[in-house]
Amino acid sequence: MNLGHWDKAIIKSIFYTAFLVLLYAAYEIGIPSNLDSIAGFGMLSLIFLGAYLLISIVGWLFIGFPVHWLICKYSNGNYLFYIFVALTFTLALYYWFSVLEIAIVYGSFALVQALIFRYYAYK
């Protein structure tokens, strides 16, 4: 497996999960009902996406790559290892922030990204 294949898997995992970020933004902000609301929704969605992309890139550099390397080195790359790491990440977020919604939201995004990455990395 070459590094270019991993790059494509990471890009797909980040951008496919971005759709979930937009759905979450729509849930948090609400569906716009007038032109001002549409503009506000667009701006806040861009902020959500910008923060998501920044967190995702930093997360892949400092957590995703090392964890993937460890999973590949010490196991067969089973999906259960990726799920376990994402659940551990979720618990760590809850421990750190003590806010269940933050842990569930970011943990869910991390889980979906990890599973999409795993699928395309070994495809």
Describe this structure in words.
This protein has 123 residues and is mainly alpha-helical. It is 88% helix and 0% strand. The protein has helices spanning 3-29, 35-74, 79-97, 100-121. Helix 1 packs antiparallel against helix 2 and helix 1 (3-29) runs antiparallel to helix 4. The mean pLDDT is 86.
Low-confidence stretches at least 5 residues in length (pLDDT < 50)?
none
Give a count of the beta strands, DSSP E runs of length 2 or more: 0
* Beta-strand percentage range: under 5%
**Class per helix and strand makeup:** mainly alpha
Average pLDDT confidence is 86
Reading the helices and strands in chain order gives: HHHH
- Rg, Cα atoms, Å: 16 Å
Largest sheet: none
Percent of residues in helices comes to over 70%
**What sort of overall outline do the alpha carbons produce when their principal axes are compared?**
globular
* Distance separating the two termini: 10 Å
Output the number of helix runs: 4
Secondary-structure map with pairings?
Blueprint: H1 3-29, H2 35-74, H3 79-97, H4 100-121
Helix pairs in contact: 1-2, 1-4, 3-4
List keywords for this structure.
123 residues, mainly alpha, 4 helices, globular
Provide a quick synopsis of the model.
By secondary structure, the chain is mainly α.
